[in-house]
Design goal:
The complex is a heterodimer. By secondary structure, chain A is an alpha/beta fold. Helices cover 38% and strands 23% of the residues of chain A. Chain B is mostly helical. In chain B, helix 1 packs antiparallel against helix 7. The longest helix of chain B has 34 residues. The chains are: A alpha/beta, B mainly alpha. The interface between A and B is medium-sized, with 19 and 16 residues.
């Protein structure tokens, strides 16, 4: 009976985590590229298993702030990483920028209206525009910055359909439920049959992705190696294949 | 915090509409299932009960595919009536209605089945029309069970999250209900906003349950969904 109970408990609680499980919290826009990186890293570090947790950088920060057991954090903007650093969550000394990206406006492939400039989006032809929620989603923060600088935020905010991460905004356009959306060039490139890039939007601050090991990581050495790995030539080649630029 | 009151008003509006729609649909279908015998009745009953056991995200996806602007229904609505359901509060009503439907339907069917069929037959022998039998005999006798189902459906609609988020999105002031506002405040690390919203939601739910207890004394089953 006792043995049965012990087996049941072990099954329920899960066997002790593998010593070399590496949990990486990464921005939603990195989903496809990072999934391709895992086998490379695991091959170079036998016995290691890379576990991913993708989401809006702001949401990932809140999870870590509330104590989520994470080893590496990759954010889509400097501000979220700055906040993580300000809270002492990450190893500031090992923080580095590893890729860059571009902000674009996309429309459904079937769209009859295609904006020629950001200002066009204030026209009545564009009723719903998907934008990442600026409070937690970096792509929304970049977008809001551009629109505020251009004086169009007040006109476009009422049309905004908030997205919880950049991939949700992409999905809204792919389903043609919104007239346009602000996403990264790398996201738009994933669905060429459903969305088309209308214009590239220059941002005041470049879209640079920082990565850093967590200060509380129990796998500090491995976490540091993963951070070095994403900057290595093989990893950069994978990232470039998805359209990410050099930092 | 002004946004919280807007979210509360929207949540109540959506839940009331969903309950009203279910009051018609759930009661009518519950009555039909209780009174008519036909092959496949229990299969149909299972289909109508599905929303209670299926993950709300699955329902949300079904709805998105069914009423989205790419779908035949969605395209027809846009072309002929100029109505879009995705990202509107009407879309949220449809999501909440579907999710809460089994609570009304199940309650109504059970309530109608406990009504003595002889009473209905007696009314018919007295020359009362079918519709009259329903409104003057069956419905008054089944009323308490139906009301209990409606109150549970209202409570369920108040808390709807998954299907609503997928169908109606999260547009502050237009489709952002209390539960979605809480989710977003937590994601953004706005703990003070989240605390206020959570308090408001809790008080609203307690008020609903207390008034439910008053309306149907002893007949509200504990929520175990």
């Amino acid at each position: 009976m006792q043995r049965l109970l012990a087996i049941w408990l072990a099954a329920f609680l899960g066997l002790p985590a593998h010593a070399a499980d590496l949990t990486v919290s990464a921005a939603a826009s990195l989903t496809n590229a990072f999934k391709d990186l895992a086998p490379l890293f695991e091959a170079a570090h036998p016995g290691t298993k890379v576990l991913y947790n993708f989401g809006a950088s702001g949401a990932l920060l809140q999870q870590m702030d509330k104590g989520a057991p994470v080893d590496v954090f990759a954010s889509a903007d400097q501000e979220t990483m700055d906040q993580a650093q300000g809270k002492g969550l990450v190893q500031a000394a090992q923080r580095r920028n590893f890729v860059s990206n571009t902000l674009v406006v996309i429309v459904p492939n079937t769209a009859t209206h295609v904006p020629k400039s950001v200002a066009d989006l204030t026209q009545p032809a564009y009723q719903r525009i998907a934008i990442g929620l600026p409070a937690s989603v970096p792509v929304g923060r970049y977008t809001k910055g551009v629109l505020e600088a251009g004086g169009q935020w007040a006109a476009i905010e009422p049309k905004m359909v908030g997205a919880n991460n950049v991939r949700q905004a992409l999905d809204y356009v792919a389903r043609a439920e919104v007239d346009a959306a602000f996403v990264y060039a790398t996201d738009a490139a994933l669905m060429p049959d459903k969305v088309k890039v209308a214009l590239t939007v220059p941002t005041a601050t470049p879209v640079l992705y920082p990565i850093a090991p967590l200060a509380a990581s129990p796998n500090a050495a491995l976490a540091a190696r993963f951070v070095e790995f994403v900057a290595s030539a093989p990893a950069q080649a994978v990232l470039a294949r998805y359209g990410f630029g050099k930092p | 915090m002004e946004g919280a009151w807007v979210a509360l008003a929207l949540t109540l509006k959506v839940a009331l509409w969903a309950t009203a729609l279910n009051g018609v649909l759930g009661v009518a279908i519950g009555y039909a299932m209780a009174r008519w015998r036909f092959p496949g009745r229990e299969v149909l009953d299972a289909v109508f009960t599905l929303p209670m056991v299926m993950p709300p995200t699955v329902l949300g996806y079904y709805l998105l595919v069914l009423i989205g602007s790419h779908s035949p229904i969605g395209a027809w609505l846009i072309q002929h009536l100029g109505i879009r359901l995705i990202f509107t509060w009407q879309g949220a009503v449809i999501a909440a209605t579907v999710v809460a439907f089994p609570l009304v339907f199940k309650g109504a069917r059970a309530a109608f089945e406990t009504v003595d069929a002889q009473l209905e037959q007696a009314a018919r022998t007295l020359g009362i029309h079918e519709l009259g039998v329903f409104f003057r005999v069956s419905l008054p006798l089944a009323w308490r069970g139906i009301l209990a189902g409606l109150l549970l459906a209202f409570a369920r609609a108040l808390g709807e999250f998954g299907a609503t988020l997928m169908v109606a999105g999260s547009i502050p002031g237009r489709t952002q209900t209390l539960s979605i506002a809480v989710y977003e405040a937590v994601q953004a690390g706005q703990d003070d906003v989240a605390n206020f919203l959570v308090g408001l939601t809790s008080i609203t739910c307690i008020a609903v349950l207390l008034s439910a207890g008053r309306l149907v004394p002893g007949r509200v089953a504990p929520r175990d969904a």
